[in-house]
Amino acid sequence: MDITVAGVSNNMKSYFFRQLPWDPKIGAAAGEMDFFIRYLVMTLLANLQAKALRYTKDPDPVAQAKSFVFLMNNTFYLSEQLGPNHIKKSSAPILRNNQDELVEGDDYKIQGEWFTQQVNKLFESSKKKYLQYWDALNKHLTAVEQSELSYTNPEQNLLTLESGRLLKARFSGFNDEFETTYNLHKELTIIDTKLREQLVEDVKKVFLPKYREFYNVYSKYQFSKKKMEDYLKYPPKKVEAMMTDMFSSY
Q: Which residues of 124-160 are buried (b: 16+ CB within 10 A; e: fewer)?
């Protein structure tokens, strides 16, 4: 089965929705459809995880992130296409949904709770691991104790050199890591529009509220005489706007 990097399988539709050459003794006629479908899904999930693991051997610095995105793309697709809450009408080979009902192939849904649990478990695990890349930004956003801030000019909020270095380190650390993470990840492929929008919101929730609070508090201090604009070049509104362009759709 051909699985594209960080995308949805080119053959996944045909894998599930073509008329399969089952042995009549173990196929739908024998009442084993649910068992057989479960076997197919579990085999597919295992294959997806094996494929994702192979991606991590690539020297690309974003290879590990690609493996998580790959799993999210494919498990989201499975959930959307075969989950019990998805409705889609089209002409396709007929499959048996249960012993009393025949449905079109693209309309076949897996009602078993095991399907939702297994697919969602892999999706959520992959997303959690992926979001850790963005959670790393928060280490630069720790508060500076007021007792650590001293001034050369209190009226202008101008900090001493030593105090200024504390804020410089935090802002420059965030800026550098944000730029690196953003530039490496913005071209990762998220095919489904719904998933892409959902993931962008999840990423923003990881670090943006804390960054907004940090920026609003410490940007008011004069901690650099000549390079304040460099340290404050990413206002929260600009960061949020940049995040709307995250991820490629192809």
A: eebbeebbebbeebeebbeebeeeebeeeeeeeebbe
